C-alpha cells in the first residue's frame, strides 16, 4: 500500500484562485503588514513569500524589517499599523529574537487585525467554537483533511507539539470536529503507545525523522507540520524535511502530507484568506457566507 499524498500546494492554489475572484468581484484591496525583527534568514524567506503572494492576489503587502528593533520600537510599529486604515492584517513574524517577550508583542495587535489568529482574544474565541480568525497552520491542516475527505469524527487524533501557533489551536479544531484528541509534548512519556493508537497524527515538533514506521497504526493519516533544514553533502547545500521519515512511512500510512509542498503552502494561503476576511469585517462589507465559513 502507498499512501495518498495530501498535495497542499494544489489545494492552496485552489483557495488562492477563489480569493482572487472574491477580491475582483467585491472590489476590495486587503492590506497585510508583516513585521520582521532581526536577521534570521529563514524568517526573511518566509516573509518575502507572504508579501509576494499577497501582491499576486491583488492585495497590498508591506514588510517592515527591523534588524535591531527594541521592544518599544516593535510596539510602536504595531500601533502604527493598528491605526492604518489601509492595513487590515498585522503579522509579527515568529520567532522573535531572544530578549523580546512574544506575548507582549502579540497582545498589542488589535484582535480584529490579528490575521495570524494567535491573540488571546482570538484563541479564546476559537476555543469556544466561535472563531473570527482561525490560526493559519491549523486552518490549513483542517482544510487539507476536508479536501481529501478525511473525517476526524470519532477518530483518535494525536497532536505532537503544544505551541500556541499550531498544537493548541489544532487541538481545539479537532475537538470541535468530534475527534478524541491527545496532545503530546516533550514531557510525554508514552509516545510509542500514543502513536500506535492514533488514526490521525499531526506532528509539529521540528525534529527530523521523529516519526518512523515503528508503532504506527496501519492506515493512519499524517499531517507533517515540521520544517527542518538538514545538510546534504551530495547536493552541496541544505534540504528541507519534515518530522516524518517520509518514504518508509508512506508505505504504512493511508495519507500523508509531504515536506515541502504540504502544510507550508496551506499556511500562506490561509493567511491570505484571513486577510481578505479581515478587510470585509473592517470595511463593513457583507461577506459571502459560502466562502467565509471557516
Structure description:
39% of the residues lie in helices and 17% in strands. It has 294 residues and is an alpha/beta fold. The protein has a six-stranded parallel sheet, with helices on both faces. Helix 2 links the parallel strand 2 (31-37) and strand 3. Helix 2 (41-56) crosses helix 10 (263-282). The radius of gyration is 19 Å and the shape is globular. The two termini are 33 Å apart.
Percentage of residues in helical conformation: 25-40%
Taking the sheet with the most strands, its summary is: 6 strands, parallel
The CATH topology of the largest domain comes to Rossmann fold
CATH class of the largest domain: Alpha Beta
Number of structural units classed as domains: 2
CATH superfamily of the largest domain: NAD(P)-binding Rossmann-like Domain
- Spatial extent as radius of gyration: 19 Å
Structural class determined from secondary elements: alpha/beta
Global geometry:
globular
Mean pLDDT: 94
Give the total of beta strands: 11
Order of helices and strands: EHEHEHEHHHEHEHEEEEHEH
Distance between the termini: 33 Å
Architecture (CATH level 2) name of the largest domain: 3-Layer(aba) Sandwich
What percentage of amino acids are in beta strands? 15-25%
Poorly predicted segments: none
Number of helices, where a helix is a run of at least 4 consecutive DSSP H or I residues? 10
Strand order of the largest sheet: 1-11-8-7-5-6
Amino acid at each position: 500500500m502507498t499512501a495518498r499524498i495530501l498535495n497542499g500546494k494544489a489545494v492552496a492554489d485552489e483557495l488562492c484562485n477563489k480569493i482572487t475572484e472574491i477580491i475582483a468581484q467585491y472590489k476590495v484591496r486587503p492590506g497585510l503588514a508583516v513585521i520582521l525583527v532581526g536577521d534570521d534568514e529563514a524568517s526573511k524567506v518566509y516573509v518575502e513569500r507572504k508579501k509576494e503572494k499577497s501582491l499576486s492576489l491583488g492585495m497590498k503587502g508591506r514588510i517592515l524589517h527591523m534588524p535591531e528593533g527594541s521592544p518599544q520600537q516593535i510596539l510602536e510599529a504595531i500601533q502604527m499599523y493598528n491605526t492604518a486604515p489601509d492595513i487590515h492584517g498585522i503579522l509579527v513574524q515568529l520567532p522573535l529574537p531572544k530578549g523580546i517577550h512574544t506575548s507582549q508583542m502579540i497582545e498589542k495587535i488589535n484582535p480584529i487585525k490579528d490575521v495570524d489568529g494567535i491573540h488571546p482574544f482570538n484563541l479564546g474565541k476559537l476555543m469556544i467554537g466561535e472563531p473570527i480568525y482561525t490560526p493559519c497552520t491549523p486552518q490549513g491542516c483542517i482544510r487539507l483533511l476536508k479536501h481529501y475527505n478525511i473525517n476526524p469524527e470519532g477518530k483518535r487524533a494525536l497532536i505532537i507539539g503544544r505551541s500556541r501557533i499550531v498544537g493548541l489551536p489544532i487541538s481545539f479544531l479537532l475537538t470541535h470536529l468530534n475527534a478524541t484528541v491527545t496532545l503530546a509534548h516533550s514531557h510525554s512519556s508514552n509516545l510509542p503507545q500514543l502513536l500506535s493508537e492514533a488514526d490521525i497524527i499531526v506532528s509539529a515538533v521540528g525534529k527530523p525523522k521523529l516519526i518512523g514506521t515503528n508503532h504506527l497504526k496501519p492506515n493512519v493519516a499524517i499531517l507533517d507540520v515540521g520544517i527542518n533544514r538538514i545538510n546534504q553533502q551530495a547536493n552541496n547545500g541544505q534540504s528541507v524535511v519534515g518530522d516524518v521519515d517520509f518514504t518508509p512511512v508512506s508505505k504504512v500510512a493511508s495519507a500523508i502530507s509531504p515536506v515541502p509542498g504540504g502544510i507550508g503552502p496551506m499556511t500562506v494561503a490561509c493567511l491570505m484568506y484571513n486577510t481578505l476576511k479581515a478587510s470585509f469585517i473592517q470595511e463593513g462589507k457583507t461577506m459571502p457566507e459560502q466562502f467565509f465559513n471557516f
